[in-house]
Design a protein that fits this description.
about 200 residues, mainly alpha, homodimer, DNA-binding, 11 helices
DNA sequence: GTCTATAGCCAGATAGAC
DNA sequence: GTCTATCTGGCTATAGAC
């Protein structure tokens, strides 16, 4: 029984996602994808022509899931401190559930930086400007400290994502097993936004 | 002239470093390493027996360069705020010069998390404790805000390293070319420590 | 120690029957 | 659409001459 008659095309994409995201483009094997999808190698080529094309489908998919979550920080009308709280909480929750996605995207973009131009569109350009001017306004009105908007954006994303990329290293340094590390990440949903707000808020 | 008669073994390790760090274990080709070292494939096996062994030599080397720089944050006797300033400045300088190393280590540790146990020794365990108790002391004496020592450590490392891992993504989002992104990283040498200190310092 | 030549394997891709 | 069988090429690794 199980997933008997969903689209073969989708079964392939699902299996490919697992394999590519854990092994990377170069480490992935078409045979393993076929096995995991419950079909044979020939079918992979029937649907996707080549390993490269299949990989691109998986990558674009991952990026398409990731981008809207990320873009929320640029794109909200909430008051700034609430925006930070919500973004940090939501984004860390998302990455906790899909921890393969960031390392996959980062890794493959470093392998082949040109890929980004195919997926990013100009979506981001406009929204970054709007956040930047929002931050600059808060600086001028004296609600937050003088700070570079771009640096602040980098900081927010860094604090949310990095601990998931570096989990093997950090969990060893901090002597945390899997469960304890997960608890630490859970804590971060509130810790990080407090940290950021403390860094920028001007006390009256 | 040039590097004519340095050890063949070192020439190999140098070439292997370049290739493994830009292509990863799976993407690297022994032929390319041989070409870059100016010798032939047979020599690679003569000196290192297998691709795996050569890779391990490169990985341990990279980790051995990285670890002492990282460990400085745990291991210094400076006053805490100065420690942060110096660590952030030095670590970002280091990563700027060797930007392949962090992505290489992170990537390969995710591919094979067991590797860490072979390289990390217990060096880290002791020093983390010492930093943690130092932070806890500052919390109790009211010099810095109540904060989890471990979260703070994660934050510091995140803010230093992540922008180099995510450069292809961030430089596209922020619309920075290579030169402008480098300038942003230069700025971070002071920006990040100010940000951290503002986040934790208690104003009188 | 260093080379050329090649063994041996395994991957991605395709042909062609059903 | 789905399969089996196979081609073709490229890779790691080794044998063996110098």
């Amino acid at each position: 029984m199980v997933s008997s008659k969903i689209n073969t095309e989708e079964k392939i994409l699902d299996a490919a996602k697992d394999v590519f995201q854990s092994k990377g483009m170069d480490g992935a094997r078409m045979q393993e994808i076929a096995d995991k999808a419950g079909i044979n190698k020939a079918m992979l080529h029937y649907y996707y022509r080549s390993k490269q094309k299949l990989f691109e489908a998986v990558f674009k998919n991952a990026f398409t899931i990731m981008a809207p979550k990320l873009i929320k920080i640029f794109d909200s009308e909430e008051p700034f401190f609430e925006l930070i709280e919500h973004f940090v909480n939501d984004y860390i929750s998302f990455v906790s559930k899909h921890s393969y996605i960031p390392i996959f995207i980062i890794q493959e973009l470093n392998r082949n930086p040109e890929m980004i131009k195919e997926v990013i569109a100009e979506k981001f350009g406009k929204v970054t400007n709007s956040l930047e001017s929002k931050i600059e306004k808060l600086v001028k009105s004296g609600e937050i400290r003088r700070i570079s908007a771009q640096q602040l954006i980098i900081n927010i994303i860094s604090l949310c994502v990095f601990p998931f990329l570096a989990r093997p290293l950090l969990s060893e340094i901090l002597q945390k097993d899997k469960r304890a590390y997960k608890a630490l990440m859970e804590e971060r949903k509130t810790h990080v936004s407090e940290f950021i707000i403390n860094a920028i808020k001007i006390k009256q």
